[in-house]
Structures are given as C-alpha cells and as structure tokens.
Amino acid sequence: MKIVIVTGSSRSLGASAAIECARSGMGVVVTYKSSPEKAETVVKTIVENGGKAVAVKLDVGDVGSFLAFRDAVAARLLSVWGRKDFDYLVNNAGYGLFNPIATVTEEQFDGLLNVHLKGPFFLTQCLLPLMADGGHIINITSATSRVATAGVAPYAAFKGGLEVLTRYMAKEFGPRGIRSNSIAPGAIRTELGGGLNDEFEAMLAGQTALGRVGKPVEIGGVVASLLSSENRWINAQNIEVAGGYII
Asked: Of 163, 240, 227, which is closest to residue 21 (Cα–Cα)?
C-alpha cells in the first residue's frame, strides 16, 4: 500500500484530497493544526469506507515543529503500516487573506510567507529522509499566480514561488526517482478566506468557461489521479484545475 501525507487535510480541499487518495487505495496521514475533531472525522470517513488513515498535528507555519512531526509520523508509519517510510507528500495547508497591497502589514505578509512557501520548503526537506525512492510531491498552488486578482498579492506571490520551487524539487530529487508537480486550483467553494459569498461566487462563475466555481472533490480527484502510476511520466508541471478560468 502506498502512503500519502496530506497537509491541512482536516477540512475543505485537503480533506477531499485525503478521502480521494484513500478511495484510490492509499494509506493516508491526515494533518491538522487546531481541529483534531475535524481530522478524526476525515479519518473515520476513510476507515468506514475500508481505508486506513491516522491524524497527526502539524503547524506548517512553525518550522521548529517539523522534527517532532517527522518523529510522530515515523512512529505511526511503523505502528499502523509496518513501514519506515512513506511515498507521497501533498503540500496543501494554507489560508487566504483579502487585502490590497497598500494595507498589508508585515505580520500578515510573514504569516502567508511562512505557510505557503517557507513551510512547504522546509517540511519537504525535513521529510525527505522518510520518503521512499520513486515517490511524488504535489504542491497546491493557485490560479491567482497566473491571473492577477486585486487583494491577494502576497498569497499569489508565494503560490507563484511554490510553483517555481516545484520545478527545482523535480530537478534535485529526480536522481531518487521522486517526481514533483503542482496543482493550481481556480475558484473553489471552500472555507479559504472565509468562503465565497453569493455575489462573489457569481462573478467568478461568470469568468469561468464552464460557468460555475469548482468543488473540493474536483481537486481531490486530480490529486489522487496525479499520484497514480498511470501518470508516472508527468513531472515538473503546474496543472491548472479551474474549469477554464479567465481564458
């Protein structure tokens, strides 16, 4: 059984990715920052459908906590799956902030930087010794790195940096057979940034070729598919999953 770690998978897009990966036959390490009950609900859903999953606490914005997280994951891998390594990492954890450049504070900037770029960089580095050769890293980026959307400049800038980092991961980890790709969701009906109100959702739907915003399962399904062996020759790519957003 292949094993995947999905960060920020106690809710929304991450939860959907965890459930879809389990549906595809993978064991799942669900991570959460402050909602253990939501994480356990995801684990329960997976187990009730015949899968295997565990929940482990992780604050992607706190690099100093990563070694303890790695130790906790290593212990769970051994006790639950009888393995000393895992196969796939999905760097998904994140949050949104809607603020014009003129009013963004340094604290807000640093918070987004830590979670969306610095965190995935150092978490991946920390987990590399536990990752099996032939593994796969998926970084969740954003269509806002392609289409400028007023009010999300820091978020989009760091997602753009993560997209570039994805290619460097593919280059440097290639000798171990580890692939690295990124998935860029468009407008998705999630809790990110407080969710979408009806007016904003209608505006986004009008800018999308398929005439609606996406659902978390439509991203989760792509995550599971990209991790599969059928897509083993896709590497160093950013795949926008947005229903044709502003084309």
From this structure: 227
- Kindly state the average pLDDT of the residues 18-35: 98
Rounded CA-CA distance 161/27 in Å is: 29
* Mean of pLDDT over the chain: 96
The stretch 125-132 carries a mean pLDDT of 98
**Of 17, 25, 63, 65, which is closest to residue 42 (Cα–Cα)?**
17
Render the chain in DSSP notation, one character per residue: --EEEETT-SSHHHHHHHHHHHHTT-EEEEEESS-HHHHHHHHHHHHHTT--EEEEE--TT-GGGHHHHHHHHHHHIIIIIS-S-EEEEEE---------GGG--HHHHHHHHIIIIIHHHHHHHHHGGGEEEEEEEEEE--GGGTS--TT-HHHHHHHHHHHHHHHHHHHHHGGGT-EEEEEEE-SB-SSGGG---HHHHHHHHHTBTTSS-B-HHHHHHHHHHHHSGGGTT--S-EEEESSSB--
Q: Which of 32, 88, 95, 155 is catalytic?
A: 155
Q: What is the pLDDT of residue 198?
A: 82
Give me the residues paired with residue 241 across strands: 185
155 is catalytic: yes
Query: What class has domain 3-241?
Result: alpha beta
